[in-house]
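Purpose: get a first structural picture of the assembly so the mutagenesis plan has something to point at.
Setup: two entries, given in the order below. No constraints added.
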Amino acid sequence: MTLDDLMNRLGEWLKGEGPNSDIVMSSRVRLARNLNKVPFSHWATKKQREQTLASIKEALADNEFLKDGLLISMKELDEIDRNLLVERHLVSREFIQKPDSKMAAISANEAISGMINEEDHLRLQVMKSGFNVTGAFDIATKIDQSLAGRLLDFAFSSEWGYLTACPTNAGTGLRASVMLHLPTLVLTKQINKVLQAITRLGLTARGFYGEGTEASGDFFQISNQVTLGQREEDITDNIERIIKQVVEYEQNARQMLMAQERQRIADRIWRAYGILKNAYIISSGETIELLSSVRLGVDLEIIKDINRHQLNELFIFIQPAHLQKLEGKKLSPQERDVKRAQLIRSKLLSS
Amino acid sequence: MTLDDLMNRLGEWLKGEGPNSDIVMSSRVRLARNLNKVPFSHWATKKQREQTLASIKEALADNEFLKDGLLISMKELDEIDRNLLVERHLVSREFIQKPDSKMAAISANEAISGMINEEDHLRLQVMKSGFNVTGAFDIATKIDQSLAGRLLDFAFSSEWGYLTACPTNAGTGLRASVMLHLPTLVLTKQINKVLQAITRLGLTARGFYGEGTEASGDFFQISNQVTLGQREEDITDNIERIIKQVVEYEQNARQMLMAQERQRIADRIWRAYGILKNAYIISSGETIELLSSVRLGVDLEIIKDINRHQLNELFIFIQPAHLQKLEGKKLSPQERDVKRAQLIRSKLLSS
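Result (structure tokens, whole complex):
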């Protein structure tokens, strides 16, 4: 597998299937781990960081879950390729800022990935299509155990649990999240109440494009805020239970809206489709908004000539690095808006 | 010919051909005439109005230009049919307010029409596709002469010329106008300067849907303000000369825009087309705006799968009375917005 292979397909977690995949795009579990008696990445000397890199790299290269995948040094990649990994949700935006002593591991189907020397020595991520936090957690646990059982000695305190660079990740080191599409709660203005309730229950919401981004186009990434003082299973059970309710709210809102304002919804959905199929210049913000409406159209079976997988493909490929990778060169924001519109037209026409 | 025939076709003046028909939709000449020694319609008794009606009706029924056409009493029509005539630009909105003692004459191709007992005893109108004021005037003159020469004695003063109910129409009784489509002058914000210049030169601008309406969707109906103290030929020459310049301004603006911002124009045009083809609810205001962009697209040969005649058909048939006539019953504004979208989708899909 090479990096260029990413351009020919989508990660398995974007296949648009799995439980409640009309509302839950994907589920993700991330574990933060650090080597015992080695300074955290930010405090480590260059030599120490290189040593951390070497030992974790060896462990990952050897791991059965990551075989046939990719193990790449950030320093070897140009700016577009680094951003490509961010856009694929495989590494964090922070991770690519300073590429020294950093490597990423990516499984062949993109379901599993690891960052070496991000904030923590190792960040391990497992993604699943649809609503399947437990499934993602089970795999993450197996990889964690296989790593800890063989080569790596992780920093662990019997009092605090796993030690992490930032105390907000200590304890389980576990961050579970789901990507939700809640267009009808947004449309019916119930979303703020839902997000407030979620926050009171210890969860937090972000946008589709990750940490620090606004929720856009009705997509919300919901994750647990607390990692300490709870068992792993409590965290995953808690998020599954709460998200199940949010899913039901969105389902009910969709049913109500279809019963009461079918025409208005159809109008909104088909207009979005019409614009996407015809525009010659389009920003990523507008694209996300319109794709959100079209996705709802597919979920409500109003639009039948396109499926969720094709829409997910657009969500990923309309991003700046993907567009530039497709074009084989750097593009100005204006050039990207033209290229983006062209890509969307060709994908929707061939659908 | 019956009134229902109107629903199966368009007036000849909307065929989308003729000189400069990319910018000048149509040309129109209207003559105001009153019978000698008979009170103007507003001042006349019911009996006098009926007498006026009878004598003009007889003259029109007999006229070679109007044979095979329609001569209809407003009282016989229901509200939808009356408004249908307004929407076809065959009678004025004022004409249908009080239907008593009023008749309309319509030639088979809708190029010629007459109103009996509007503000003046007879308003005669001739319309031509494209930029052809002189052509319309020539026909109007012939009809005027054929009427005056046979049955009718028109009120005429050697000092004032033709006498009319409102002094602003006295003299020639001639109003010449052209319907212009000036999207690029609007887009490049040159339109106000152009309209100001036009006004200084004795012309006045209105919207597509007639007197008292705002110019909408970049359509402007330009006509002469003064009817008195000029010869007929001066009036038609003046408007032809000025409009010729406006046409050149618009042509130049289109060339400039295509050279400098081809992509932005294509984006605007195709988005409009995409929305029209896909919307399920659409107001007449938005429709006009979007049709304006699509028409520009056809003129610039960006859109090739539809022609001006088809667009003109939409301009006419998306109006309230046409929609209600098609549906065979009264529709609320909300129902019309749905019916309008449906009509547009079906017309554009079959194009």
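Chain A has a mean pLDDT of 92.
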